[in-house]
Fold this protein.
Amino acid sequence: MEPAFHLRLAPSPGNVATLLDALEAYAEASALPPAVAMRLALIAEELAANVAMHATGASFFALSVRPAEGGLELAIEDDGPAFDPLGAAAPDTAAPLETREVGGLGVHFLREMTRAPRYERREGRNRLVCTLPLEA
Amino acid sequence: MEPAFHLRLAPSPGNVATLLDALEAYAEASALPPAVAMRLALIAEELAANVAMHATGASFFALSVRPAEGGLELAIEDDGPAFDPLGAAAPDTAAPLETREVGGLGVHFLREMTRAPRYERREGRNRLVCTLPLEA
Amino acid sequence: MEITETTEGAMGVAVLDGRLDTATAPATEAKLLAMLEKGGVIADLSAVRYVSSAGLRVLLKAAKQAKAAGRGFSVVGLQPAVREVFEISGFDKIIPAFDSRAAAAAG
Amino acid sequence: MEITETTEGAMGVAVLDGRLDTATAPATEAKLLAMLEKGGVIADLSAVRYVSSAGLRVLLKAAKQAKAAGRGFSVVGLQPAVREVFEISGFDKIIPAFDSRAAAAAG
Ligand SMILES: Nc1ncnc2c1ncn2[C@@H]1O[C@H](COP(=O)(O)OP(=O)(O)O)[C@@H](O)[C@H]1O
Ligand SMILES: Nc1ncnc2c1ncn2[C@@H]1O[C@H](COP(=O)(O)OP(=O)(O)O)[C@@H](O)[C@H]1O
């Protein structure tokens, strides 16, 4: 099935904002519940910002959204160096302020807010797919 | 070369607004001159709105923008019925108010604001390509 | 699109703020035509940076209705990009454009 | 993101309006850290409907600097969506959240 939303951009920090603006408009046009729209933006921002800031040599990042059983299927792709975000360590969300580290939250949101996230490297591209439940 | 911007959406009027919001953010991120950004939005809106409103059975419209010689190359695609917008009659822009007709302005803007617009039908898709000069 | 209603002399003024496009055309048309029921109208486009053909269609409809009713309809405050759209479409020759609301009310 | 500065009792209040994300994090961080030079700070997030991890990073940095300087740092007005982000990230346990500016100033 054709995706309901597919946006591919050159990976710059400015284009992370472009992606968020487009997703916000798409969420409104599709009447997504606000909580779902926020989770969608959060996951997209984390992954797109990682590509824009860390993926040396990448020429694009792309996000597809398509209606699927149990929610929206998200697919995020880029052509940067092989990198599996699911391999990153989870942050210690119970650490006190003094020792709490920043970072690692992106993958934590992915695990907590989506179902069945899976990563694959194919034909020089990173591809991460997950399902975002539609319940608010 | 990979496009700098590629957005594909289901063809609904709400998604015409999604496309415009995304283009506005992209134009800002790319520091396009305001006059160029407006022409880009105008051409995109005309063609996307035509698909959303007239192309029975279409499942998507898509816009790609890529830097090219002499400006930005725009490509607009959809999988609706075969339709060549360049075949439409030009409006009479000198008609007085009483007899001035609405409609036909989309293709007029395309002819006046872009260079070398060309249409092709291939593999069940309409594809219109043109060059938008970068001078303000 | 936000539309604020005010007056200039005997004319109604519709102050438009936002994009005048496919999405905002229907509400803008309803507002302008309702104002034209009451008298002449000046559309202040100073805060409109984008007018598409769907927007021009609304302005044309308003101009035609005004003409039929023997009332004035004009625009003020065209931004350079919007002026370009007016010129390319020939609208500069069918809808009077003024520099200020006062000039529009006098014209 | 717009940030307006005001006060509540002895505390500075930063009223944030917009998305707190990758794009707006740097300016927000600069503002909060500058305000913390002068005293305790309450960040009013009533008009913030979106906080990403880049935004949380800013709040964490502000909380750490406040702690090191022996000053207060708290948030008020968390929208439901923003509250969810705080809870999933464990930030609800490290940054005090209050219902109102008055409660935050008293707390
Ligand atoms: N797309 C990517 N390609 C290559 N390396 C990456 C990518 N995303 C993240 N990394 C690496 O993983 C580290 C941790 O990423 P993350 O947990 O998202 O924290 P950060 O907030 O620093 O981006 C980064 O500092 C970077 O070295
Ligand atoms: N993508 C399309 N597919 C099929 N028919 C189209 C398409 N775009 C336009 N048309 C037809 O051409 C007519 C004129 O289009 P246009 O000049 O853009 O004026 P309008 O403002 O009515 O859309 C439409 O009324 C419609 O019948």
